[in-house]
Amino acid sequence: MELKEKILAVVSGPHVNAVATVDEGKPVVRFMVLGGFDDMTFVGGTMKSSAKVNQIKKNPQSALTTWSGKEFSDPYVEVLAIGEVHDDLETKKQYWNPMFEKHFQSVDNPDYVILKFIAQEIVYHEPKTMEIETWKRG
Length: 138
Fold this sequence. Notes:
Distance between the termini: 20 Å
Strand content: over 45%
Number of helices: 4
Largest sheet: 6 strands, antiparallel, barrel
Structural class: alpha+beta
CATH superfamily: Electron Transport, Fmn-binding Protein, Chain A
CATH architecture: Roll
Helix content: 10-25%
Shape: globular
Strand order of the largest sheet: 1-2-3-6-5-4
Number of domains: 1
């Protein structure tokens, strides 16, 4: 299996990710559900008023870690990414998920925004074999 296929097997679809941003030069980590896509982007909805939105606007350097959460021996990835905040209606509609309704009620909610993380480098870890491979954006 090619490296990109291995990575997509870990990240495709919605997964809980540890998401790190920078606040006043220090890392801040929280869990967030993000969908992983074939173009090596990770996308999720959040509140415009959240601290991470302001942190990404000030410094888009971000990091993510994704793992299946099932078995300790399952592969996982570490991602260095550039974060983007999107609050235009077109993008919000594109990534709207019915699971957002309990938090935002509708796609028109002005506090609903999309965070998009564009992977620059992904380190794939295979714990069973101790294999580590790195994918980099061309």
